[in-house]
Design goal:
Number of helices: 9
Shape: elongated
Mean pLDDT: 86
Helix content: 25-40%
Distance between the termini: 11 Å
Structural class: alpha/beta
Oligomer: single chain
Strand order of the largest sheet: 7-6-3-15-16-17
Radius of gyration: 22 Å
Strand content: 15-25%
Length: 370
């Protein structure tokens, strides 16, 4: 091993093995795949990240803001690129595992996919879907004043996993629950503020699939819910917790998974740098830079943002990346609870694709696996 490299070396059976002092946080949509179609550079990148036995050479966590499936399913969806463990996959809702104080309470869950399975996998014991509530209370749009609902209790929370299919139904019923403290058969009450807890996952305004232009994300649904609530009540919708990138909570959980991998592989070298590779300036870059700012205040570790050009970010767009004097005029696509700071949307590095990102990081870290 060369003197001065940031990666530590360990002597094993007469050969030197490189020990990483860094880890990767890979976004999925727009970085590894577009919809269900793999991005060609992803295969080349993964070929550099594993040894002949298929083991990762560095700790890797796949951090997606998707929340419409179990992490096992997301790991299976990525199996065409590389065999990965569900422990390496972090969904936008994964940090909800830490919110144990809500696990035994009744929760109304919004989104799509196997919502009950997702909620139960996270630890929730009494999840109720929007569809179940709608079936039990078919007259909710008219607000039934005569009966209390037979599916909800007073100790209820609302968990927003992701954008639903029928927005108008979900918006109506969530508003009903918020304005009646969990009894949507009752009339709206002006005294119900602050309202019952709301936990939201995935704040992406838009995301990239097979279509040529970005599609509405869960952040757009949240904008609708927030504005409807304020229009009716004159007050701001409050969140008990926001998770998914760019939330610090998400990066803290991802760092925990990175360090757990290093411990499992007996890599003694401390993980000093996280490289967050993503395609969205307002999500991936903002989140990584925000977390780096937090780390600089609290530890010696750092988080570096790497922006790829295969997803939401378009280097050829006139407003592709806010910078310089134009930044104040640029539209902020982040969530309303995250203040806009021009420094947080400037990536540390811009590369064409994820393969180039891996090459760049290996070069920066003097990491040359053999």
């Amino acid at each position: 091993c060369e003197t001065g490299t940031e990666a530590m070396c360990r002597r094993t059976t007469g050969t030197w093995l490189l020990l990483p002092s860094f880890g990767f946080l890979f976004d999925i949509d727009g970085v590894l795949v577009r919809g269900r179609t793999p991005i060609p550079a992803a295969r080349a990148a993964f070929g550099k990240l594993v040894n002949p036995q298929g083991q990762f050479l560095v700790p890797v966590v796949f951090v997606t803001n998707a929340g419409n499936c179990l992490r096992q399913k997301k790991a299976e969806q990525l199996s065409h690129l590389l065999g990965i463990s569900q422990d390496q996959v972090m969904m936008s809702h994964s940090p909800l595992r830490m919110f144990k104080r809500y696990h035994k309470k009744c929760v109304l869950v919004s989104g799509q996919g196997p919502l009950l399975d997702i909620a139960q996998d996270l630890g929730f014991c009494q999840p109720i879907t929007i569809d179940t509530l709608r079936e039990k209370r078919p007259l909710l749009d008219a607000v039934d004043h005569d009966r209390r609902p037979n599916v909800l209790v007073s100790e209820i929370s609302v968990v927003l996993f992701g954008e639903p299919v029928r927005w108008e139904t979900s918006l109506q019923l969530i508003i009903d629950v918020l304005l009646t403290s969990g009894y949507p058969g009752n009339p709206y009450g002006q005294e119900n503020y602050p309202h019952i807890p709301v936990l939201a996952c995935n704040m992406d305004l838009m995301w990239v699939a097979e279509a040529q232009s970005p599609r509405f994300g869960h952040g757009t649904f949240m904008v609708c819910l927030e504005n409807i609530y304020k229009k009716i009540t004159g007050k701001d919708l409050k969140y008990e917790a926001l998770m998914g990138k760019p939330s610090r909570l998400t990066y803290q959980y991802a760092e925990h998974l990175i360090r757990a991998q290093a411990l499992q592989r007996s890599w003694e070298q401390p993980i000093q740098t996280l490289y967050a590779v993503g395609d969205n300036v307002m999500t991936d870059v903002y989140g990584a830079n925000l977390y780096n700012r937090y780390l600089q205040e609290s530890s010696a570790a750092r988080c570096r943002s790497v922006l790829v050009c295969t997803g939401v970010y378009d280097p050829h767009s006139e407003v592709a990346l806010p910078s310089g004097d134009s930044v104040a005029e640029n539209v902020f696509h982040g969530h309303r609870d995250f203040s806009f700071d021009p420094a947080l949307v400037e990536p540390d590095h811009i590369v064409p694709d994820v393969d180039a990102a891996v090459d760049l990081v290996f070069q920066l870290e003097n990491f040359a696996p053999r």
